[in-house]
């Protein structure tokens, strides 16, 4: 491998002033700096891959190659063929998988040679670098030197670099019969840069003059920039209003580009370049002063992304290896101590100052965006200052050593809880520049054309000793500036021309020396800067405020976000972290395309996580506000009112003399002092701040994906509302049954009132959100596949309340129009779930759709009971046929009833799997029990429909009145067509069309496809019910309790069941004979009941009078029977006597 000194000597031997093409220096600086960033990106990814066991090349962890790798690393870079035998079987896979790693190192070697060659060329050309004059040339030169240093340091930090290179070369040797061509020089480079600072000092030693000159020129900018926040305040930095008379003047300085130059970059230039060139640079007092300031400003500097360089320890160790640097080593230790003591406070104060300064800038520019024209420089300066402080903070959060005794104060010093505010104002400025970019471009088009182009023309005409080609370039530049218009959108050629001129005119041997014409250079730099205001606004934003560094500090980002969301004073700024995710793609480089997918996905996932966390934090506050609102609502409940009344009526003497002071509802609103904040006040403040973050923007774009923060909040609120309703409904105070509908409605109203507060805090379609969320609660299942209010209540009413009613533990009362308890052992009060108020609340909760679903389930159960009834009828068809024609023959009827009693025993044996009532007493009892169950279900269904109708009358009175008029104007034949519509609003109809459809579906399931057979079974069913009614008189539970208008066994619901079944069954058969069939039923029933009187069975059938009342109720509720017809077959005085007897027995 040829040495570096060989490169230097050959270059200097060839280089003469005439042969050096100065115009190519600019292009090479641009290309090599770009390639350096690309190579840093590739090296960074290799380092991370080798450090992570999951992404490390599998060959490095293969135990079969363990011996070969150890041998290669030990002998590196010597090629030892003894190791080749280990890798011969895997040579193809090794070559293919490690080629990217190997050729990255080979590219690095080539890049280093080109960089050193260019640096030597510039040194030979005796370029004169001054950042205040040839800004582009000086910054590009220093960046190139620093990039080279960072590349070599990062190379030395790559684990397994020897193993990767040696293993690849061994596989390559086996495949091609010789080592890879660049391996000898590459191996030597790896060895040389084991101690990168030492080797870099040797490489860059001959270039000290140019490096030192460039750094010295930075001193004026650096010293002016690296000051405390107090000095910024005294200088009124970044203030528009400091000098109101010059508010509309263009902000221009002699060193305009240096005003927003990154302090972070200058620290890197100074620390790394002076360290590498320490033998000469530290002897210069200016550089030494800058060096100390840079070392005292922090503990680490950036190498690349999140790779940092611990400057004090590394430089101290480097200086200790050099002779004559004892004092310098001691100075490094002092700088380290000063940095530990002061750097945190200095940077904390800077961030505090920048928060206020950027806030003022945002407020002024939002109010007067026209100021963006003349004062654009202030925006770039503010963004650059803030970006430097944010970058410093991210690097140093984990850089400071933990003290032996952990001090809470020291921890709080480095932890900046107000960082989100600074990030927010940075983003606000970026958005303002993007929004009003046309203001800036239009202003500077006119400014350059009207002022700078004129001044530049005068200066150029007075210049002497310029070469002819330089005059042509400058003349073209001036002409373009003079003819500038808003349609000119790309001035990269002009900027490149000026860069070339800087390279050409900065040579000491040039006839025209740029350093001697500083006014010309200043105007050119100013013009180039203002051209950027026209066509490179986005690039300027990236240069001054790019925060893609957060992509590699995701753990800190998550920590800061959590901390931000818990602080009400900062939570409104949490949205800034979502905007930062859009910066991640700025970290990409064309030389490393393989990381694009990972970085884009990381940006998208982080943005999604941030918005989800923001929405969930808002939901957490909403939840606590909802609990408080519900507590206030409960204080106004009837239960609380009853307890207040009971306490007020309690005796005040004796053991009751001591009473507790109860806070009355409304006292929580009484304020004594305005500055006393209650918990709801604090929660409301937190909610307003969080909603401010959510509502900051309608949408934000991350990697061509659009995120809508308000949609995240809407989705979370929709999910929250469903969850809180399910949670509240799941358990009541006893822990066994769902809450009463009235209590659930109070809970829902409390939650809605809180959500309406959100509507006043952030502009979202709350009506649509509530409609969507509550509409889901009216369905059996919501969009998440979870249970809803409808499904939970439907399940409970069917499987708990109505099942207990079928067991006679609950009784339906016509008087109370609800189900009431018939047992002392019930764990709940049925009337608290079925009275008018509760069912009205239930209807408001589940809506018409929920009522429809519950009604369909109820009707399905009725249809199932009818199917079982049909089975019993088929088993006793012959007897029933005989009874149908013998109702006026008492002796024959007794024989038939006796036969049915005999059939009862067979029914118990053959139908053991039927409803439990079939086990009690045979076919007649089973018929009565099932008809009673149908009556209970229909009674509950009617209560539900009445509640629906009442609610709709309040909510949609005009719609209901129209429907009532339609119903009233329709004749009986056509009412069937609108019966389903009437049922949907809770109006009563003659025929239950839903039951008709359910019976039809059940019949098809039971294969009752013959209409005549089905019709005959329906007729016999009514015969069976009629002749079974007298059986009710045998049960003492059939007694009709007059004070509640109900029987203990719910037999009083049989009339409702019979009338409903008659309308549905005979409408289904379409024979138009409902009235004859009901007359037949009345004749059979009245005949059977009259036969009780005057017979020995009358004594056993003690409750026959209650059954008489059932017969009267059947006629009263029927649309097909009249009392005249009843009087013709059953004396009405018996019914009056029965009522009187029941009332007397109750008394």
TrEMBL record:
InterPro entries: Nck-associated_protein-1. Residues 901-921 are annotated as: Disordered. GO terms for biological process: cell migration; cell projection assembly; cortical actin cytoskeleton organization; neuron projection morphogenesis. GO terms for cellular component: SCAR complex. It comes from the Eukaryota. Belongs to the HEM-1/HEM-2 family. PANTHER family: MEMBRANE-ASSOCIATED PROTEIN HEM, NCK-ASSOCIATED PROTEIN 1. This is Membrane-associated protein gex-3. It comes from Steinernema hermaphroditum.
